[in-house]
## 1
Amino acid sequence: MFGLKLDMACEIPDKYYSLEDYEKAEPRWCPGCGDHSVLTNIQKLCREKQLDPAKTVFVSGIGCSSRFPHYMKTYGFHGLHGRAFPVASGIKFRRPDLDVFVITGDGDCCSIGAGAWVHAIRYNINMTVMLFNNEIYGLTKNQTSPTSRVGTKSNTSPRGSILPPINPLQTTLGVANVSFVAQTVDWNPAHLYATLNAAHEHKGFSFVHIVQRCPVFQPDLVDEFTSGKDAFHLIKNENGIVLDEKAEKTFKNSVEHDHTDINAARHLAEHENGKFYLGLLYQNKEAQCYDDYGAHNLGFTAEQKMSVLNEELDKRAI
Amino acid sequence: MSNDTMTTPAVKSQNTKAKIIGEHILEIVSDSGEGAQKCGQSFASISAKMGNGVWTVEIIPAEIQPPARTREGASGIRVRVGSKKITNMGNEADLLVAFNEQVPYSRIVQNAYREGTVMLLESKWATHSSEEVKEKYASAVEDFKRQGIDVREIPMEVECLKLVKNPRKGKNMWVLGMLSHVYQRDLSRAEEQVRYVFKKKKDEVIEANLGLLRAGYQWASDHLDLIYEIPVLPTEEKLVVMNGNEAIGMGVLAAGIEVVSMYPITPATSASHYLADVLDRAGGVVHQAEDEIAAIGFAIGASYAGKTAITITSGPGIALKTEFIGLAAMAEVPLVIVDVQRGGPSTGLPTKVEQGDLLAVLYGQPGDSPKVVLAASTIEECFQFIVLARKLAETFRIPVFVLTDANLATGQQPFPRPKAEKDWFSPPIDQSPWKEGVKPFDWNMETGLSRRPIPGQAGGIYTLTGLAHDENGIVSYNPDNNQKTSELRSKKLATIKKTLNPPVIHGEESGDLLIVSWGSTLGAIEEAVDQAIALDAKVSTLHLRFLSPMEPGLKEIFKRFKKVLAIEINYSDDAKAPYVDEENRRYSQLAWILRAQTLVDIDSFSNVKGQPLQPKIILAKIKEELNIK
Ligand SMILES: Cc1ncc(C[n+]2csc(CCOP(=O)(O)OP(=O)(O)O)c2C)c(N)n1
Ligand code: SF4
Ligand SMILES: [Mg+2]
């Protein structure tokens, strides 16, 4: 009709998902906890992208932050402490149709799960990863984390911690086949949203380091974050994460950065002089995705599988 | 070496009459890397193809290239060949091929030989440039003879050098040729086997090996007065031959499994090697994870997402997987876990057999963690149980273990060719739309069964959690809910048990002694029991395949025997050892469980020598128990 090609007709989704379609239980995080705002922004992202809740999976480990999947009305997997990555990798490996998100804490990822973390970066399976770094163990009530700064007083280091912290950005940038590394903070919704969005757009292991407030066990840090705005520098690059003017204005300082330059990214990741660079540090769209291999031979029929078995049995026939 | 130790066979074999025998046990031992196993496996394949029953056991050092000419470094294979079906490795070997005089000692400490065992020994060491080597050789030959071993010195290397420059590669094929003549194997079949073994090699390599094979055959024909004939019983049945790990691999193909997630560990790895080679063509992928924890986590993720998944490992790997096994039980994720057991604890005896993981597998998780445990007792069962395990895992939404061991892993035995059924390959779950309103844990209160949704199914949305949860998958610390859901998970085992038949007793239904066993000891125990019955002993045996849930009717059966004895390959205290008394004696693993479940005073007889049990040891135990002289 009217020369309109049928296959050109725009697809009208049979269902429009609203925010409520992604909201499940009332979150049980403490008031003022940075996790709340990440949840809200993720729900917003799901709605903006109209992600099918049935085809979206939130995978986590154990910790305050890892409760996240329980608050999403999508599929979820709240598994073991430190083991979100292998589970998420197994889910995505042969289900290219699923959208996989991973939620992990600084203890979950950088301590007990460190081995799996390094390898997940290298597998570069398509998933959006959020590391909630509050520099402390929240759920188990105030123990030193591998990302705690020197001198952090906690129940396991009452006289102050002595070891230098792991820098998750540096570590991630040091692993072969790294493909996407970004940093954001929980209290700047516009930046948080834009970063999560960019991470979700990227095909591969999109690692987002979220500086997260824990007012209960890290009140001093929360003060430092909110008073010391000067420390947060916006990474600017028109091909990277772009904020609108209003949002940009929330930053006093900014820096131009080429996110294809891994050495420059490593330099920013150093947090020299206490500076935090927010935005896209590194991206490599060409990195090998292990899930492409995982999904290379899907959908075999029973007959096909049976004929291979029979061939193999024939080889061993007497 | 003095001349009188040189044995030149007096009679050439043309004049030798073939000795007809029902069965023979031969061993080939060498330094690592000399190809003794390839030689033995080929011999076994040729024999199986000719219609003989065979059983092989590999002798594997833990290192890849341990120092040459050492007693601990021996590498090799035992092949038991017979007219009838062979079910175990047997007692002492009848014939032994040794590539040097040191390696037999590793087997002598295992009582592998007897007076009269023929040893075909490489003689090159007798004229070695090193005085020390020469002396060692001469004294070992003396020693073997003193032990009654019938030593024949064979110029293997000298003969091989006539054809090739480096006989280290190829001597094994010359030996295969020699053995082919000794056992009257078809030369054409042997040639076919050599071509198969070297199929990936260049033509020159194949030709060189064929040359060696023929030369060995001819040499034996000209020089050896040994000819055995093992008649073949005609059979119509179509058979296949493979080792236990290949059978696991084929089981994975037959179960339509799509994700094999593993971390390399002896003696399980070769199953994954095989799968890495073929699974791709059958619509699946092998994932080599960063460790065993990640391996099982990956498999659980795949299974949660609706793909059939398996993880294959051995004892130390099971230890690492423990927490995830508990999660699979708690969150009811179907999963097949294969444990190819080796000697433990810790790194233990990596290449040797033990049945030491039973209790760890059954009770390894903190809290109550019900799971199904199957134990394969033959190569054929290694295949079948993978297919069965997959079905059980999915139907009952539960982790299912298949236990095998180092003995089954490398042992070869022919079995009837499985007839694949289409149903084996069906998708893991009903993919039809999830009915709105049906809960993700919609438990049947009687059976504990529930259907599970997978991502993609609208209406089935839930968050899987290892925390206590209710039928909606919602975290619940409610006391009654935890009690109820624990009961429901446990009920699944009771439900499975209702579908099982009582085990079949081998021997009379009642008597003086009942031997209870599981796993790879089946053949050796039945052989010993049959021999004892022939001596009028009132002994029977019962072999368990299901260890969780246990097969039904055991208590009733046990009551019909004066004594019940568990025989297995794992540690138990000797009842007569100092300080050991009735209260503190530590029993073998199956005995522990059976004692607890049946309240019958079950005794145990077991050892951890890293060896399959010889029938003769079991027969001796039966005789001791029943006072038979
Ligand atoms: C195997 C195991 N060890 C320890 C714990 C206890 N545990 C739970 S959460 C946690 C640390 C959480 O810290 P983090 O990952 O930083 O998350 P947060 O609570 O700060 O969000 C620990 C040690 C556990 N659940 N499992
Ligand atoms: S303890 Fe800290 S991290 Fe945990 S919920 Fe409370 S504020 Fe958030
Ligand atoms: Mg933390």
## 2
Amino acid sequence: MNRKKSPGSGAGGRNVWTIMKKEFARFFGDKKLVFTTLLLPGLLIYAVYSFMGEGITRQFSPDEENPPVIYGENMPASVQTILDQTSLPWQETQDAEAVKEEIREKTADLLLVFPEDFDRQVEAYQTSEEPAPEIQIFFNSSQSSSQSAYTQIRELLDQYETGLANKFDVNRSQETGEPFDLATKEDTTAQVFSMLLPLLLMVFLFSGCMAVVPESIAGEKERGTIATLLVTPVRRWELAVGKILSLSIIALLSGISSFAGTILSLPKLMGAAADSMSASVYGISEYLLLLGLVLSTVLVLTALMAIISSFAKSVKEAGTAVTPLMIVVMFLAITSMMGGGPAQDVLLYMIPLYNTVQSMVSIFSLQYSMVCVGVAIVSNLICSVLLAYVVTRLFSSEKVMFTR
Amino acid sequence: MEEILRVENLRKTFQLSQKQQKLEHTREKKRVAVDGISFSAYRGEVFGLLGPNGAGKTTTLRILASLIRPDEGDAWVQGCSVCHEPGKVREKIGFLTSELKLEDFFTPNYLFDFFSQLHSVEPQVREQRKKELFHTFGIENFAEVKVANLSTGMKQKVSLVISIVHDPDFIIFDEPTNGLDVLTAKVVTDFLLDLKRRGKSILLSTHIFSLAESICDRVGIIINGKMILCDTLQQVTNGDTLENRFFQLYNAYAQETGGEQV
Ligand SMILES: Nc1ncnc2c1ncn2[C@@H]1O[C@H](COP(=O)(O)OP(=O)(O)OP(=O)(O)O)[C@@H](O)[C@H]1O
Ligand SMILES: [Mg+2]
């Protein structure tokens, strides 16, 4: 900080930094505020996503400690051999009806009913004229252990059936480790990320702004502290720019916290697919572009919210008034989920906020054009300058600032 | 006598919101708050604007502080027009009203530095001034206490100190002793007299006649947005008390306009 008055400092602009320092002191001096806006979102998102991911993984993997209770009637030797190769235990039963009752009561999971001479019938079965022997599987879909046992047995039997015909094999050498899925790590990550992250990032940035802008503008108006600033020689544009810049930076930090939480928990959320997913597929240039893009976006969002908050008489009113903006932003954000890849027309990248979403899709899917992203950033910056001018006008308007 | 403030034919009309119409039981859409006010204040003097509630005192002072613009007329502070050079006017004046609040989160010390920076006060000068002012008002022990935790009187004193961080020549105070106990009020009035002794010019508004009598050199009496009388304190009182003179003037005005007498 240069404390000495530099020559020509009377020209203005110096107060922008003074205002910014005050906003930072206000925010970072309040430990509770820092915790709830900067740390908590990231931690919560990490915790929730990790928890969700673990839940999903558990649902699809067999429970080793509590094996399902499986009964078989007339279990043929061929199927016995198949079952013995798995970890699924089973017992023979003569009383199918009793077992069905147990399944209904959820004390048993599954009942397999075979015709008496199943193996012989299978062997004899040649043409499609006579009916094939039928296996009946009874289970209870409202019981997750029963449902998962059913899925597993069903799969085993399907495999066995396919094996019987054995006219040809598909991808048999997969078992010997030959890779058939030729998608690279980059492709998988890029596809998933470009679907999910633009939407999430927009939500995070918006809520970051929501956390600080109404409080700092409508709040200061409500408490009468902004009038105290307005009687000093500080210029209205210095006040507008100082506020927009500092609040944008805080909102950006909050957005980055949520983003980091997402990136770190994504492998867990994706469960099995996690091996082939990593945020490290993006290089430094992608991250820098993203940062530039996000910063320019936060400036637009902050300035828009500052305009809305200037009109509001209280923080509460500002919160309500911001809702339409939220709907617009969310609508723009879900255009990323509509598939078809990023917009191609450079002109579309001149539309503020929409250009952000499209640029993010293109960056995450690694199909970006420098020109388009560049146009997007510049267009957002120009837009925020215009909006800052509007905020300046509002700060100068006695109707807006001093109406009872 | 050097003219430090000249006010010419100020006029200000407010649009009344529906909420305000209900609140004040009126069907009027407009309220003329200031109705053609003219007067001058002189260097080294204390000028008191006197008038009942709703007379237009605060509105007049806000126009002079360039917070709001008059519909008609103009005013000059040390030659600078409030309509055309509001930035220069803000540099020259110190302005204090009860509606200007300090942020609860900060300490007097921080706020003093912050507002000094906005007024481009040199750091060495700032520290010196802070020491003196904090001493005068007994703020030293509260310098690091957040505004939220200060008493009403202490808040008011801090607000006063903050409004003059740049040592302005012309100071505008709206109801400087409103809401203060007699002890704190005395600290404030003594300080105003001290400022006057140091050659500063002061414009204040009040409806407390005794305050006006004890410190004003010149008074202007406003009723219904109009300046009824403006002269030196001696000329206005003319041997009587200010309060009696005010009732005489008020009744004469009411008779003229068909209003209610007291
Ligand atoms: N922003 C505003 N919008 C609408 N009406 C206003 C506004 N400000 C002031 N008024 C009205 O203008 C009139 C003059 O108000 P002003 O505050 O100037 O009076 P005052 O002399 O300061 O009174 P008091 O002694 O109560 O402070 C009042 O009737 C008030 O209701
Ligand atoms: Mg008033």
